[in-house]
Fold these 2 entries.
Entry 1:
Amino acid sequence: MQTAIPCLFMRGGTSRGPFFNAADLPADIPTRDKVLLAVMGSPDKRQIDGLGGAHPLTSKVGIVSKATRPGVDLDFLFAQLQPDKDTVDTTPNCGNMLAAVVPFALETGLVKPQGATTTLRVLTLNTDMLCDITVQTPDGHVAYEGDARIDGAPGTSAPIKINFLDTAGSVAPGLLPTGHVRDVIDGIEVTCIDNGMPLVMFNAEAVGRTGYESVDQLNADTELQARLERLRIACGHAMQLGDVTKKNYPKMTLIAAPRAGGSIATRSFIPHVCHDAIGVLAAVTVATACVLDGSVTQGIAVVPRGEAKTISVEHPTGEFSVEIAVDPQNPQTVTRAALLRTARLLMRGEAMIPAAVWRGQQTNDAAQRRAG
Ligand code: NQM
């Protein structure tokens, strides 16, 4: 007998993966991680025995529960798996999977719709990050169809607005964890920054590239990848992240002048594969660097004037707009970051776990939900 765990399979932004109610997973973390590896079919390059899509962006899991902290509606724990590794990393954030959290909670009855739109406060447990998420709920149901377009996902969908409340220093100690807005590390001028995602940003020319290469070119460029990994490990120490050899961060971000009317061009390694677009919090962090005096974006980025601005981050499949507001008294402090995502429920059902991995007791809750 396999153990059946209720599961919704969802796209969140430009990522995709199974979502679970935390109460349906083993409470013990090593057992939970074994279960998640079995769900996704990792480690295996093709993830043939699981639901993973053989890429880091489709090797993600969302775990949702009702919040315990006053003033917060939902808790979200994100788990990053890898196709060919046996790791379950819950240290970094994922702003893409985050976009599917409120739809999941509404679909599974964890929360009730509020009217034509529903706004809930979500705590991402990975880094203790708060945000307000607004989804369309006409007629008491989540709307997935609409006119909102995000580059990196086909077609259009109903908009999901995410308003981040506190992102600085998500995993690293502070926005600028080296203490400087710009450093020279391993011979390269870099900005090491974390406004939701730890990033190392540098001019693509500093590593002999243009920053406009295709994802396929960059994923085939083993010489560049070796150079980036050496730099990443050195920057990990400088950012007080310790030995990052086995960690999914910092992400390495090549930058160049915009060439499609945006603010800056990017190629983002997450951290060993080049992203087809850019992560949500990676885009927030790039946008933040664009408004910091002295960062490596200076002389490259085209930044609008004013306290509130929209920074358009160009990436391999389009652009990602981030609304950024800075403190007028201290323009080096970002007070708000907001952006648009979409999500879609792709499938509902049960993830089946081999008995050799976990002989789960179905909770009464799960059994009742299955019974309808
Ligand atoms: O930066 C990819 C993604 C992400 C993470 C990654 C993300 C974020 O595109 O908030 O969304 O950086 O591994 O899903």
Entry 2:
Amino acid sequence: MNTEPKNELCCAEKEALRIRVDYNNMLSDKVGANGISAEELAAVKPRLVAALESANAKRDSMRWRDLYKTMPPILDSILEAAAFVRETAENFVVLGIGGSALGPIAVQQALRHLHHNDLGKAVTGSPRIFVEDNIDPERMAALLDVIDPEKTVFNVITKSGSTSETMAQLLIITRILLDRFGEEGVKDHLIATTDKEKGNLVGIAKRFGLRTFVVPDGVGGRFSELCPVGLLPAAVAGIDIRALLEGAEYMDGLCMNAEPERNPALMLAGLEVLAMENHGANIGVLMPYADSLKYIADWYAQLWAESLGKKKPSENGYLRFGQTPVKSLGVTDQHSQVQLYTDGPYDKTVTFIGVDRFRTEVMIPHAFDEIPGVAFLSGHTLNELINAERVATEHAVTASGHMNKTIMLPVVNEFTLGQLLMLFEMQTAFAGELLGIDAFDQPGVEEGKNATYALLGKPGYEAKLEELRSSAAKDAKYVI
Ligand code: PA5
């Protein structure tokens, strides 16, 4: 595998690959009374400027934002581990969940062949890649039916080193590896990605002498795609991880602009917050028109939901924040959800993601020229059709008075995807500042983790088990 740095893009090339944001259709000029007015936009400007300043002041604690600066010194070790996997393995299996899985899934889907695992190593140069983010027993059994551990490298990813799902998967896999290869052989089949000192995986990695990568401090799960959590799986797939980081750096530069109209993440955050606060938009639909970006919507859903879904004590109890993200895929979901996005309630915004140039072109050939109702399609391309359908849906949603906006990628590649990841991360951070909440904790997720520990008898969780039992006893009369 070539680990030499590729040439950096020049300024003009970067500018040509810049992601564009069109937010005209969020405004009342376009969608009517339900849209954001020029007065609202003017009034929110001082809040946007303040949010930018406070996010910049907190930069030291937002280390995910600096990964493009802090990762380069370890890229060689990531590429070396990736080269080992590419040489020795037929399968690469990520064990992780939430922020330790959604980024890898999204980036793999975006940047490798859509049928990567079916093409075979002879064509891709890379092993088959699986990201196992659920603990459905049938799924684990099915995985074990199709991989040979002898030809497999597993990458266990958990920042905390304690998440029940990931540790259960690790136990299953370690047992298999120990039985097949003995204590000494485990290190050839298992790579760990975790905190530098906290959690159980640190000790496990030491015991077996595993290759280990660190999730840096200040990089929470859902903000971790551009550290070894995502970079190693990406490198195994042959994705250019330096260009991913370059894209993130470029977008971070744009997101430092003090003028909200020139700062895409700040403007997107401001529009969504206004939509939530003043227009009842409790739902935010993300609808990429590209299969390669389908799982960006899953990654974004976690980022937006877990970061902004918060409560703050108030005089009358709690103030509650957040917007429910909905994942949608163009054009597929035009035939499932767009009826709701047009004629349904004014409780949502829709964000379309479009692609100017797909990486391939598929012609629609002539075959039924005698049937005008079908023949009009012939001579066009699927590329034209998918983009025409996106424009048509934007029109229908706008005409029905629903706020929407469009993020355009010139092409899907490492540089534009790095930009997109950073754009959404920064949008989320700015929205947290605007709402006055901590976007970087997840007490609700921790509560669920603790209840699981209690139910399965983890020492130290006896009081939590008692709490669960007494609440279950009270609920008994409502069970049919
Ligand atoms: O964003 C987060 O912090 C969470 O979603 C975590 O990524 C998820 O709970 C998995 O945690 P861990 O990586 O510690 O296993």
